Amino acid sequence: MNRRPIITLLCLLSSIAVQIHSQQIADSIFATYFARSQAYADAYPREKAYLHLDNTSYYIGDTIWYKAYVVTAEQNQPSPISTPLYVELLDQLGNTAERQIIQLRDGEGEGQFILTKALFSGFYEIRAYTKWMLAFSEKQYFSRTIPVYRKRRSEVDENRSIITYRMDESMKQRPRSKEKDFMIRFFPEGGQLVEGIPSVVAFEATSKEEGTVGISGTVYGPDDVELAQFTTLHNGMGCFIYTPTDKQAKAVVTYQDKKYSFQLPKALPRGYVLNVTSKEKALVIKVLRNSTSLKDTLALFISHQGRPLMYQTIDFKDQTVYHLPLSTQGLPGGVIQLSLMNSNGATLCERFCYVMPSPSLQLTATSPNALYYPFEPIEYHISMKDNTGKPIQGHFSVAIRDALQSDFQRFDQTIYTDLLLTSDLKGYIHQPGYYFVDHSPKRRVALDILLMIHGWRKYDISQAISSIPQKPAYLPETRLTLHGQITSFLRNKEQKDILVSVIARQDTVSAAGFTLTDSLGFFHIPMDTFTGSMSAIFQTRRKGKKLNRKTNILLFRNFAPDLRKYSYEEFHPKWEDISALSWWSHLSDSLYLDSIIGHDAHVLNQVMVKAKRTKYKKILAFEQSVRAYYDIPKELDQIRDGGGFMDYFPWLMATLNSNIQVKSSWDADFPLLTMSYNGHPMLCTVNGVLYPIFDRELFIDKSIDAIKSVMICDGPSATAGIDDDKTFYLSDESLQQHLETSRLSPFEEKALKSYLDSPFSFDRKKNSYAICYITTIDNWDPEKKYQSRGIRNTQIQGYSQPIEFYSPYYPDISKGQGNDHRRTIYWNPKVTTDKNGKAIIRCNNANSSTFLTISCEALYNGQPAAINVHSIKY
Fold first, then answer.
1. Do 544 and 657 belong together in one domain?
2. Which residues make beta-bridge pairs with 298?
3. Could you please report the per-residue DSSP string of 286-300?
4. Could you give the CA distance from residue 162 to residue 147 in angstroms, rounded to a whole number?
5. 676, 728, 685: which is closest to 710 by C-alpha?
6. Residue 343 burial (C-beta neighbours within 10 Å; 0-12, 13-18, 19+)
7. Distance CA 724, CA 690 (A)
8. Is residue 227 part of a domain?
9. Crossing angle of helices 632-641 and 649-656, rounded to 10°
10. Could you say which residues of the chain have pLDDT below 50?
11. Nearest-angstrom CA–CA distance, 809 and 422
């Protein structure tokens, strides 16, 4: 009997059994990973925030009105997770101009920032986040850059200008882009190149002076063999296909008559590549390997917002390519994450794709007029329908803007583009609405390239499948609570059973309470009933004792995300130029005046007198002398919240600014103090008044908590902020007269006498001084000590309260108010449609003939929608 066929058959069956068993083990491993990541997504659902602003740019003196939407990341439904929303206005350098806490109700809230005269012009960032959004390794938050122009000199001033300040390097600075004059960055599809596998490489070309730029170039291999040609498709981005070898390829480009050469990423000798082609209703997925000897057990996980939707084990069957066509029917709209993983849970390749959302919520806005006369009644009809045309009874936020006095950029950020695209990408996305104009193949390719370049591993599936996943840094905030800790003053040791009492005051309203620290010195104060910013006094004492205990009072409230750098496009926004339409507005204004005052009357043109121009130039020069500015209470709170100690003004300034030098000495038992800035003697003013003895140790050691702000100026115009009407100059005669006629404390008298004996003198014309402008709290008393044992003064913050937008009604437009210069004509954070899905908005125009832009944004049943409609096409 011939047993060889039987043995061969048994070996074959054994091999098949081993393969089936291996496949079963792989399926079991990946099924476990899938279950873990599902459980992680259930345990830690994510949030997104979005702000609808009333305008796109502002002047100092304007008000920024905003409507906040906070949703669950998966479904875009109003989030029940968090109640406090933190909304911040940051200046161009990254200093917090104002921080508000908004109480969310059904995932929505509203507020406003009043741009006071104390602010500098510049490109401000407004950002919003919940504490839960910052709890993970990849922090997410809403961010938008808005220009804040200098206050207009008059109502006829149409210039929109931003001052270029020469700020000190010691000031807080945003991360700076280390851009070269010209550069190209390359992004291999899936994250890597592998030798011998044809690969798609996305690229982005940028210039230091122009931002993203259009270019063409050639890819060369060894011996300058041409491998591929490439050209940008949109906004400096494009892609090409080439097959890498063991030698690095280079891309050669000529830009502005200069040739540049860039090395492409080095290819791996062995590995996998993930390739995806986006079709209208499908994703054509290919997993490629460069050798059949690669035997990794693989699976492709397909996820959305951190939740895996499905996975597919990869069986190459002795081939080098695995094909997986995937229908997008039934997949959620938005960014989809594809992760190629091995059985050890490592992510080998990652690719982000986009599934175009199904047509959903529809908003329309119509108005009968193209141009509106001064104070003329305005009427807009808003309609809200679903994708079948059925009326929806819901609500939306709306802003009506003066188109000629406002800035407009096509394809700008909206709630639709943010929630469905840009919030899931990394970095600034320029004109995101461009990718949703149509569903053409060219637009799909441009969107695909965008995802290869700006795709963001916000959700790390390797972390989610871990048997011990990383826990969030914070818990969700269902209520507003101030957390703190008491430690010993010298050793920073936790202090248990310490009685912490708090007295908070706001205007004429005060509140008081106390709590007890736990075994680790922690305490918690509910803040739900507090509104706005309040002055607060914290006192600590041992339980059962009468005297305050000197301790460190730490407050855990500094959890804001790190500063981000601005892109070129954010510093150089390109607004649509509609100035050619201004003639129509001016003609309409003339006709309106004729109807009011008659044809025979003459109106004199408004002029700016020379004195005002001179004053404006002086103010401009003074602003340009500013080198640094500090919100002292915020700086002190930052130090003390972390357990640091600071009670001496000169050392605080030296800590904040390395260019400030402090020298002290003793003369006849009297402490002498000298402060300088960049080698220039520094004089100090208090509330605009130059204090001749302020460079000595007078009151700044005991009044540091009475200081609101400090501004350092240097240069020829640095002294322009000194109040001449209140300042006596530093001559011996004036000081001697002040000594003889004024009531001085013994300390001041001793300081003044010492000053008279010194050789120092002040001459405003020499321009050799740096000036430290100090602003104190109201009713500041130099004799009062603002700190005591076991007591900490600080500001605590409750929920910010929204105010109502002022939209005047003019029953007779011939009697309109000439000083009505609103750029935002109307703002309403919540307009409700009737059962027919209709809403009517009525308001009055301001004092100039203009065209209008209406901005409506809504979120209904997880479906975002936005429109920007102009009363005239341009």
1. no
2. 314, 342
3. EEEES-TT----EEE
4. 8
5. 685
6. middle
7. 9
8. no
9. 90
10. 9-18, 21, 603-604, 606-608, 693-699, 728-730, 747, 750-751, 758-760
11. 39
Which residue type, as a one-letter code, is found at position 257?
A: D
Point out the domain boundary residue: 731, 766, 786.
786
Grouping H, G, I as helix, E, B as strand and the rest as coil, residue 787 is coil
CA distances from 621 to 151, 165, 628 (A): 15, 10, 15
Per-residue pLDDT, 645: 86
Q: Tens of pLDDT along 157-172?
A: 567 889 878 888 778 7
The Cα 617–Cα 610 span in angstroms is 11
Residue 684's alpha-carbon distances to 15, 117, 721, 739, 785, in angstroms, are 88, 22, 11, 19, 20
Residues sharing a CB contact under 8 Å with residue 110, sequence separation 6 or more, in sequence order: 65, 66, 67, 68, 102, 802, 829, 830
Q: What 3-state class would DSSP assign to 221? A: coil
Q: 177 near 185, Cβ under 8 Å?
A: no
Residue 36 lies in a domain: no
The predicted pLDDT at position 133 comes to 98
Residue where the block lists tokens 């914070």: 474
User: How far is Cα 235 from Cα 232, in angstroms, rounded to an integer?
Assistant: 8
d(CA 700, CA 831): 52
| Per-position b or e across 753-766, b if 16+ CB within 10 A of its CB | ebbeeeeeeeeeee
Report, in this order, helix, strand and coil percent for the chain, each rounded to 5.
Answer: 20, 35, 45
Q: Provide the residue range defining the domain that includes 553.
A: 481-558
Would you list the DSSP string of 348-406? EEEEEEEEPPPS--EEEEE-S-SSB-TT-EEEEEEEEE-TTS-B---EEEEEEEETTTS
Buried b (16+ CB within 10 A) or exposed e, 351-362: bbbbbbbeeebb
Residue 138 gets which letter from DSSP?
Answer: S
> Mind listing the pLDDT tens digit for each residue in 485-544?
999 988 889 999 999 999 998 887 788 889 999 999 999 999 998 999 998 999 999 887
Query: Which amino acid type is present at position 389?
Result: G
Q: 800 exposed, middle or buried (CB, 10 Å; 0-12, 13-18, 19+)?
A: buried
Same domain, 655 and 768: yes
pLDDT at 760: 47
Task: Tell how strand 334-342 and strand 377-385 pair up.
Answer: unpaired
Q: Give residue 701's pLDDT.
A: 55
Q: What is the pLDDT of residue 789?
A: 63
Q: Identify whether the C-beta of residue 51 lies closer than 8 Å to the C-beta of residue 32.
A: no
419 within some domain: no
Q: What is the CA radius of gyration of the chain?
A: 33
Question: In what helix (H) or strand (E) does residue 835 lie, and over which residues does it extend?
Answer: none
CB 121 within 8 A of CB 148: yes
For residue 640, being part of any structural domain is answered with no
* Residue that is written with structure tokens 């400096």 in the block: 236
What residues form DSSP beta bridges with 762? none
The first and second tokens of residue 819, run together, are: 């000083």
**∠ CA 182-185-188 to the nearest 5 degrees?**
160
Helices 746-757 and 732-741: angle between axes, nearest 10 degrees: 160
Say what the pLDDT of residue 694 is.
44
Of 249, 352, 255, 267, the residue nearest 302 (C-alpha) = 352
Write down which residue in 558, 585, 620 finishes a domain. Answer: 558
Distance between CA atoms of residues 822 and 810, nearest Å:
14
Task: Give 333: exposed, middle or buried? Use CB within 10 Å, 0-12, 13-18, 19+.
Answer: middle
Q: Tokens at residue 412, please?
A: 């700008």
Q: Is 183 exposed, middle or buried (0-12, 13-18, 19+ CB in 10 A)?
A: middle
Q: Cα(744)–Cα(9) distance, rounded to whole angstroms?
A: 112
Q: Is the distance from CB of 92 to CB of 124 less than 8 angstroms?
A: yes
Amino acid at 39: A
What is the number of domains present in the chain?
2
